[in-house]
Structure formats: C-alpha cells, structure tokens
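Bumping my old thread because nobody answered last time. Still need a sequence for this structure:
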C-alpha cells in the first residue's frame, strides 16, 4: 500500500506546500472533509470499506495529519520536511490497529487528551 496522509482542516496555501513536500517523498495526500467524519480512519485510508455512516454532529477545526503505510524512516523524513518547510501541524498520528477503528472526531479527542496530558507531565489514558 502506498504511503498516504489524511489531512484535516489544512488551509489551501498550506495544503499546496504540503502536497509538494509529499510528492517529493512519494506520499499520497488525502484531504478529509467534515462530511466524511463518520467514516473510520481505516476506511479513509483505504484499509476498510467506506460505509453509509452519517457524519457526526460534532466536528473540530484544528489541523490534524494521520500517516498510513509509513516506515519509521519515511515518517521521520516527512516530519523533518514539515519542520524544514515551516509547515506546522499541531496534531499528528500514525494509523494503528486501535485508531483505525475510530472516526476522525474520536482520534482528534484522543490526540488532544494526549497532548494535554503531556503538557501536564502525565501519560494519557486511551479509550476504546
């Protein structure tokens, strides 16, 4: 499976720079619209079937990036390129067997809780 990133709430100018960076690294970029937030992360990455689930009423506006099909080396190269290109994205994740079943809103909540726990010097509790 070709490496892919799901991107959420990235403004057009930043998305264009991100697409260029990813093209050089052989990474497919898939912007996700709020109407798709009912789908699982796995389905959005092409690892599961897209279902007929409505988008949740709850949404989020913070930028988020999810990596799928990445080696550790490629993830490190992308993160370095984002830093070098001054393309900050606050929330980043790698698809795991656990979060592949979550929808984007659930993943956003978990990443936000994790970030807040780290800021407080504690480890986040994950919810299934």
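Sorry it took so long. Here it is:
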């Amino acid at each position: 499976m070709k490496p892919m990133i799901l991107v959420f709430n990235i403004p057009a100018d930043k998305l264009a720079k991100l697409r260029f960076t990813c093209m050089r690294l052989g990474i497919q970029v898939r912007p996700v619209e709020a109407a798709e937030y009912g789908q699982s992360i796995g389905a959005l990455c092409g690892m599961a079937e897209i279902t007929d689930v409505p988008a949740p009423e709850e949404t989020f506006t913070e930028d988020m990036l999810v990596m799928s099909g990445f080696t550790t080396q490629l993830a490190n190269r992308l993160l370095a390129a984002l830093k070098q290109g001054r393309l900050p994205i606050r929330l980043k994740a790698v698809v795991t067997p656990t979060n592949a079943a979550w929808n984007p809103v659930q993943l956003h909540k978990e990443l936000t809780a994790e970030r807040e726990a780290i800021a407080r010097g504690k480890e986040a509790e994950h919810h299934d």
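The chain is about 40% helix and 15% strand. Let me know if any region looks off to you.
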